[in-house]
Amino acid sequence: MMTTKKELRLQKKILRKQFTEDQIDEMSLVIANKVLSLPIWEKTYFHVFLPIIEHKEVNTEFILHLLAGKDKEIVVSKSDFETHKMTHFLLTDNTRIKKNEYNIPEPVDGLEVPSSKIDVVFVPLLAFDTSGNRVGYGKGFYDKFLSECKPETIKIGLSFFEADIEITDVFEGDIKLDYCVTPEIVYKF
Question: Is 126 labelled a binding residue?
Answer without folding.
Answer: no
